[in-house]
Amino acid sequence: MLRSKRQRISDDDPLARAMEPPPGETFEERQRRLAAEQEAKRVSDAIDEELNRQRISEKKGPKAIKILLLGQSESGKSTTLKNFQLMNSPKAFRSERASWRAVIQLNVVQSIHAILDLMSKAHSSVHIASTSSHPPPTSSSSHSTNRLSASHKDYPPITTEHLKLKMRLGPLLQVEAALVKKLLPYGHVQLSGLANPAQSFPIQQEISVNSSAGWKGTFSRLIGRDSCDSSDLIDWSNPDDPGVVLNACAEDMKRLWADPIVKKMMEIEKMRPEEMAGFFLDALDRVTSLHYSPTDDDILRARLKTLGVSEHRFSMKTGPLGSPMSHDWRVFDVGGQRSLRAAWVPYFDDMNAIIFLAPISCFDQVLQEDPTVNRLADSFLLWKSIVSNPLLKKTDLVLFLNKCDILRAKLASGIRLADYIVSYGSRPNDFESASVYLRKKFAVLLKDHSPDRQLYCHFTSVTDTKSTTLILENVQDLLVRDNLKRSALV
Ligand SMILES: Nc1nc2c(ncn2[C@@H]2O[C@H](COP(=O)(O)OP(=O)(O)OP(=O)(O)O)[C@@H](O)[C@H]2O)c(=O)[nH]1
Ligand SMILES: [Mg+2]
User: Which of 88, 204, 207, 407 has CA 20 to 30 A from 114's CA?
Assistant: First the structure.
C-alpha cells in the first residue's frame, strides 16, 4: 500500500520523476551517478559558504567600489579583468594556469582549423571554377567574415602536399571536438558558429563561458583532477592529454603556418590570424611542447568569449596620499556581443565607474554577429549610448582606446585608415595622428551628450601587463579619491 502510494506520488510529481535513477541502471553507472551528485553537492555547499562569507563582510565594511567593464565583443574586457586579478590576487590568477592551458590549446587548434577551412574553400572554388562557368561560392569561415573581404578571389592552386598536410592535421580536429564535447555537459559553456556550406570541415565553433568559476572547474575535470591549484597538477603522463596530439602535430602546424601558398590565400581573404583573438601560431614551439605551462602573458592572450556576468572581488590596503583606509573592490565583466547587451542594464544604477573599452584597431573589421556593421562604428554608437544614458549620469567614465599595438602594426603595414573613415582625409597614416584623431571623435561624443563630464581616456594595449598595471593603478587612485570626495571625507 505504502509502496503503491509512493509510486503514485513519484508518477505524479515531475520533480520526483526527474530525481529517480534511470531505469536499468547498472552498478557502475549508479556509482558514477552518486559520485557526480556528491561532487555537485560539494560545489554547491562551497558556493553557499562563499556567499555567506561575502554577505557578512559586506555588512561589516565600508561600501565597495564597483567597476563595470563595457565594450563590444573582443574589445578586451575579460583581458582587463585578468589584469586586475594579476595585480590584486596574483596567487589565485596563477593557480588557474592549468585551466588556461586547455583554453590556449583550443585557441591553437581553432586557428589551424580556420586556415584549413580556407584551404578547403580555395580548393573547392578552384575545383568549381574548373568544372563550371559559375563563379565560386562566396561564403566564408567565421574567422574571415569579420573582415571586409575582397570581391574578386583568385586563389593560388593548392598541391597534393597541401592535401596530405590537411590529412595529417586531421587528429587536431578530433582534439577540438573532444575539448568541446567535454565542456558541454556542465552547462557553463555555449557554442556559436557560422554555417559554411563550402567547407568540408565541421563548422567553426567558439566556446563561451557563463561564469568564471564554473568553467575553470570544468577544465580541472578535463585534466583529470578534482582541483586545479597549479600547473603542477597537470597529469603530464596522461596519454589522452590534448597536449600529446598537439605535440605530435607541431611540425605540420608550423609547416602550414609558414607555407607561402597558404599565406597568399590569407592575403587574398584579408585574413590576418596574428590580429585575431587567441593567436598563438607564432609560439607553436613553446605551446605545443609536452610540458607546456602558460605564462602570464599567454593567459592574457587566451581567448574565451564571455556569456554571463563574472565578478572579481579584492581588497586594497592603501588609498591615495598614503591613506591607511582599506577598500573593497568589485570588478564586473560582461559579454559584449550585441544579443548580450541587454544584460548590462541591471548593473547601471550601482556602479562607481565604467571602464569602456573601444578597440581602435578594428576600423577595417565588421561585427561577427552582424557582418553589415563596422566594428569601429559600433563602438562609437555604443559609447554614445553609454554617455547619454540617464542611469549613468553620476558614474565616472574611463575610456580605454584599446588594441593600440594592433593599430600601430596595421597602419605600419600599409592599411589606410582613410579608406574606412573617409573624414580622416589626407592626414598621415601613422599611429600618432590616427590615435589622436580617434580620441577626438570619442571626446566630441562625450561633450555633445554629457557636457559636464570630464573625459578620462587612456591609450591601452591590455595584453601588455606592465603598461596596463600603471594605468589601472591610476584609475584605482582616481576612484578612491572620488569615493572619498563623495563621502565628504576630503
Ligand atoms: N594584441 C592585443 N590583443 C588584445 C588586446 N586586448 C585584448 N586582446 C585580445 O583580444 C581577445 C579578446 O579579448 P577579450 O578580453 O576576451 O574580449 P571581451 O571584450 O571580453 O569579449 P567578449 O567576452 O566577447 O565580450 C583576447 O584574445 C585578448 O587577448 C590588446 O590590446 N592587444
Ligand atoms: Mg569577455
Answer: 407
